[in-house]
Amino acid sequence: MKDIAPEDLQNNLKLTARKDPTHQTVVEVGGHSVGDGGFTMIAGPCAVESLDLVIEIAEHVKAAGAQMLRGGAFKPLTFPYRSEKMMELGEEGLRYLAEARERTGLPVVTEVMDARKVDMVADYADVLQIGSRNMQNFPLLEEVGRKGKPVLLKRHFGCSLRDWLGAAEYILYNGNPNVILCERGIAAPHTHQVVSRFIIDIQVVPAAQEYTHLPVIVDPSHSTFRRRYVAPVARAAAAIGADGILIDVHPTPEQAAVDPLQALDYSSFSALAQQLRDIRLAISDI
Ligand code: PEP
Ligand code: MN
């Protein structure tokens, strides 16, 4: 893997590179700002399961202090089989998310996996999520670039910071400056089945902030894959100066249709959200 060279900043990352210490993009989503020094919490189920459930989750995460709702209607699942247990509601799920936004006022972050569906997903979403597996799907990046809606760009688990910023450059190059970067853990030979499916690259947060003006958030759910590690990693993200988190929340986590091992229940999320606010207050003078 290559490091970012000064020539990259000049020639390959013209739009993504930070020009000076004050150069900072603030992405506006439904009246909320990401990247202005505050800490944004984007919370919700891994997959949208039903209208009632997504509304209930939206109400709870909002009460706990989340500023946006997450939820997948299109899921990058390892195997092609979909069922009630491994769920993907497609456009119906997008309608449920839009209804949850209507009820709570929370903007919606949801994944788009297919360049041909960008228009459709953008009709419902406030932020288009590019999943880790699609980080270098260049036609998809071009399409969300042309669309202009805010994009949440996850880092692929096998890619360097240079590759990640290169993917962001595609979106900016196609006319869309509203990109939020999201670290979600990298795969390495030392990852273990139980204690670390992926390794959160916490240091990449300040590193990315050094090289780019784009906001950088952390997903402590998909990186750790285990509930007991989610809060510690979220606290680390807040302490290291990330611009926010993207986190799975479900009322009965072990029954979640997708990723049941990592979601937090309402009370755990609520307690964590308070800790994250306290951490940000504690470091606000640093
Ligand atoms: C997700 O956030 O729902 C997801 C599938 O994440 P990732 O692309 O990081 O695996
Ligand atoms: Mn998931």
Uncertain spans: none
Q: What compounds are bound to the protein?
A: phosphoenolpyruvate, manganese (II) ion
Please give the radius of gyration in angstroms: 17 Å
Strand-residue fraction? 5-15%
What's the total count of β strands?
10
Fraction of residues in helix: 25-40%
CATH homologous superfamily title: Aldolase class I
Strand line-up in the sheet with most strands: 9-8-7-6-5-4-3-10
Instruction: Using the 3D structure, state the CATH architecture.
Output: Alpha-Beta Barrel
Q: Profile the largest sheet.
A: 8 strands, parallel
CATH topology: TIM Barrel
Oligomer: single chain
Question: Number of helical runs?
Answer: 10
Structural class: alpha/beta
* H/E topology pattern: HEEEHEHEHEHEHEHEHHEH
CATH class: Alpha Beta
Write down the domain tally.
1
Question: What is the terminal separation in angstroms?
Answer: 32 Å
Shape assignment: globular
Global mean pLDDT = 96
